[in-house]
Amino acid sequence: MSVVLEVEGLAKSFGGVRAVQGVGFAVDAGEMLALIGPNGAGKSTCFNMLNGQLRPDAGRVRLLGRDITGMVPRRVWRLGVGRTFQITATFGSMTVRENVQMALLSHAGRLLHLWRPATDAFVAEADALLARVGMAEQADRVSAILAYGDLKRLELAIALANAPRLLLMDEPTAGMAPRERVALMELTAGIARESGIAVLFTEHDMDVVFAHADRIIVLDRGRLIAEGAPPAVRANPEVQAVYLGAGLVHG
Amino acid sequence: MEDLLIQALNGLASASSLFLVASGLTVIFGVSRIVNFAHGSFYMLGAYLGWTLVTRLPEGLAGTPFGFWGGVLLAALITGLIGMVVEMLLLRRIYGSPELFQLLATFGVVLVVQDLALMAWGPQDLLGPRAPLLRGSTDLLGLRFPRYELFLICVGPVVLGLLWLLFHRTRWGRLVRAATQDREMVSALGIDQRRLFTGVFFLGSLLAGLGGALQLPRESVNLHMDLAIITEAFVVVVVGGLGSLGGAFLAALLIGELHAFGILILPKITLVLVFLVMAVVLVVRPHGLLGRASAPVRGAAAAPDPPVGPTPRPLVIAGFAALALLIVVPPFLRDYEVSILVDLAVFVLFAASLHFIMGPGGMASFGHAAYFGAGAYGAALLVKHLAAPMGIGLAAAPLAAGLLGLAFGWFCVRLSGVYAAMLTLAFAQIAWSVAFQWVEVTGGDNGILGVWPAAWANTKLVYFYLTLALCLGGTLLLRRVVRAPFGMALRAQRDSTLRAEAIGIDGFRIRWLAFALAAAMAGIAGGLFAYAKGSVFPTYLAISRSVDALLMVLLGGVQTLSGPILGAIGFAGMQEQLMRASDLWRLIMGGVIIALVLFFPQGLAGAVRRLWEGRRA
Amino acid sequence: MATEIGRRGILAGATLLATPGLVRAQGEAIRIGEINSYTAQPAFLAPYRNAWVLAVEQVNAAGGINGRRLETVFRDDAGRPEDAVRHAGELVNAERVHLLAGGFLSNVGLAIGDFARQNRRLFVASEPLTDALVWAQGNRYTFRLRPSTYMQAAMLVEEAAKLPARRWATVAPNYEYGQSAVRWFKELLTRAKPDVQFVGDQFPALGRIDAGATVQALASTTPDAIFNVTFGADLTNFVRQGNTRGLFERRRVVSVLTGEPEYLLPLGDEAPENWIVTGYPWEDLNTPGHVTFRDAYRQRWNEAPRLGSVVAYDTVSAIAAMLRKTGANTETEGMVEAMRGLSFPTAFGTGDVTFRAVDHQSTLGAYVGRTALRNGRGTMVDWRYADGARYLPADEVVRGLRPQG
User: Fold this and answer.
1) Are strands C225-228 and C197-202 parallel, antiparallel or unpaired?
2) Which spans are transmembrane here (chain B) (predicted)?
3) Which distant-in-sequence residues (6+ apart) come within 8 Å of B158 by Cβ?
4) What is the ipTM of this complex?
5) What is each CA distance from C356 to A114, C74, C104, C144, in whole angstroms?
6) Cβ of A94 and B491 within 8 Å?
7) Is residue B280 one of the residues assigned to a domain?
8) How many domains does chain B divide into?
9) Chains contacting B (3+ CB pairs below 8 angstroms)
10) Chains A and C are touching, with contact defined as 3 or more CB–CB pairs separated by less than 8 Å
11) What range does the domain containing B336 cover?
């Protein structure tokens, strides 16, 4: 399997506090890699450095062998990185379909077109993506009124619009009912395997992590303390110490 | 050397007065997030009330220190109570509305107060008495300096100190500070927010009233005080950083000294100097000297905008019917009525262009007149200096305005919320001062005359058809662009910057180009207006025109594409008719605006839409 | 102090026609469209409108013009030329007025003048002082009553040149009127007295003077004398700060318009003394013509006239005289021809003044004198009438200044 994302020696400090230091890992195509750790371990900081929302103090991020360290998010996206957010971010004034069309138009480089109505563009493609995440029948609803789980699925459809090689999902199941969580993660895993997309996700819910991750990396106080297949990580004494010390499941 | 020191003292005295007003404004903003246009009116009321209390004293009190200072303090107290009443009757009901709508409501209060003050005190300037004990002057460094100014210099720091004590040493003050930082948290603590807000309004208005009353021994009291002080106070508050008392004090010192020394160096640019400084400060420090990032102008409390659907069929039919009327009827109208239709068409495009960046773009502009004026001057300058024909003049209008939009927009669209709005205002004032001061080129306040249409368009009727075609074309183009991918990207970055950036949309670039496009459209409106009137003046770029445009958009409804059209017709038509029909037009206009804010928070178009949808539901 | 009719009255008048005369004159009324900055400059224009109403009433009471009554439609331009142009269009197109009149601010006057040229309508400008109105931008259809900025400057220079002062400072509102008054004063004074030196100029924004700093800035240039052009609220604040800071001590001040009661009276007992000013000695001017006017005005409005009253009264007198000349014919070209060289009596009672054919400027003059305090308020003393005709350049010069053809 080919390596999609490579991270080396990533570090970031905020006013003298080292949020992330010396983190390195890699994600392969079609792989589901979970990034876990207790609160304040540096998961979000780490995540935000990958797609360019934060600029690392040191270290390298490579996508398909290309150095993308410090690139702004929109350029990272153009190179094939989709992203979902812990608190969903969609375009509240648009319908579900328009949300996806927006991403498709951006992908096609048509943002400066002034004449033809945007709603007529990429209708079939948008509907296909929505069908893939199970949102086809809600295509004409305004996204502002969607249920939370549906918003997460819409975000996934948006993230898939540029045929990404890598998906970054920050807490994809936060705020969802347990049954929904399983469904969304199964959906994601299926898409990842089907299209050979590498998926990196952070997650609080250990059931979700151990059920769906191919591999797990564990962060504590900014450092990587463990890496490996789920059973190995579960058995790792350092991980147990960290989680037992802080209570195993956080939410 | 002595002169410079004395001039520095003059600056300090002005700074103190400015700080009194600005401190109230910034405290109110910090807690309620309301951009209170009416604050200047409270300042003016304080001055008028002070004049009445001090000059109408009973025998025995007149001229005594007790009578004077008692009058000043009583005036401040009464002003504070008036502010409290306004808060309880009006503002309390609209804390959930978008910030610009709150601003509209306070502007309504400004209009009402202007007419009430006129009725109560008449149009003449009133000269108050000098302060007992502080009448004369003191020798400082061999120069004479008024004692009253020395007193004023002390008032600023003393008030700052008292406010500091109030906010750091009392429970109420700590609550106010907490509310400034996090409104939700305070309500979570089970504190009665309403009383807190009312109290803050009382304090803020009292400070404004005190600032006004303390001007009595310095300046005459007149009806222009309110708008003169409010722009300066806004500048101070924004330069200092919204909600920051220390920032306001620093900024007041900066502005006061700038005024004093600017007079020595460049006496002709005193008016624009403050705006130049504000522009520089905001470009370098986007949140002012001591400010922190604020909530966006269209606050999170507001519901998301409704989707932009296809134009409903009845609206299309109504549009065509209106167009048919506009083509068929004018030949039967008198010249005057046709020229009113020309004005309305121009204002519709002007409002639509502002709506484009405010509604879909989510940016506020307090300086849109700059581009209207740029279009008008672009055309007129070609006529004056190159004797260009009308076709070239009209082509130059959007070009000049668009280029100016590109230049100013590059700075403005980087900022957000009130700061962005104030930067647009600063640039507009700079553009205004160029038109006003560069007499050799622009003719200064005499403007440029003789900008009449070409011979073929020189009848009112033909010129109306030309205006209708261009303004309608421009307005429809903007509607089309909102629905096109560019407009969709514009709405996308407004809805969620985070998501837009994550799908490859360069929010800055989109906003920048949208700003320039809106500027170009405003330029067309300005160019057409210039030829319709045969002249251009610096007033084309003045604050009042920017405010007019803002009122049209808000009146019509920001969230609806048809809003600016209805708003422009409603506002311009109402103003014209009211001015002809009643001497109390400001009072009526202000009342209508307040009623609108209270009962139709979606604007005219929003109300119509709701009515329509309610009937269908 | 007398009360003015107030803005309420002014604007109510905007929609009503002037009250009909005692005698119902026969024939279609002659309609005058009058545009002025009523809300922006109430101190000058409230007495102005009072006298206008009085003059029209008198004309109509005397049977009108050949049996036709005069009617006036008033409009407020709020000090904005673009509003004035809009009103001009409305007056001509909707109200069907026969001629336009009025104008206070210079830029408003110029804007209406250009409208008159473009639309071929007669415009009798009463007040705007700018020279451009009859010279650089003069046109066939525009006439102006009051002595211009140039004339006022020339009148004052005559006095200023007699002073020993050599170092001069100036202060003027920052718009066309202030700038050109300063320009003319400097040019004419330098011509009369080549050794004078101008050591500092202050140009506060109109209505927004920062008086303390301005006074200090003037003082720091240590002038022997000061030329002042500010008026209204700016003047009030300037004088108060100047008094407190001793700016006017041991210095002569030469000041345009300050002798007009509309600007002198609001200063109360703080009115400056011994300034050399142009103005209007309304209490002491006892020519028979002026006494008649003053009595009539006082009887009608129960207050003393101001200079604005004289300007309005004379404007109506001029229009009435012109219409008598045309035989109440209101065709524009005929009225223009009648205006050229028209003579009519002024309310100053100093005899007839003439609208010069060469540049359409009237020869109305102004009073030049000193300010003094009397009974706790300002007044003019040692005044004399400066006849406008004496302060205008020679005809060849004027022809060179004015677009011909």
Assistant:
1) unpaired
2) 12-30, 37-54, 66-91, 103-122, 150-167, 196-216, 228-254, 261-284, 315-333, 340-358, 390-411, 418-439, 462-482, 512-531, 551-572, 584-604
3) none
4) 0.92
5) 61, 27, 21, 10
6) yes
7) no
8) 2
9) A, C
10) no
11) 315-616
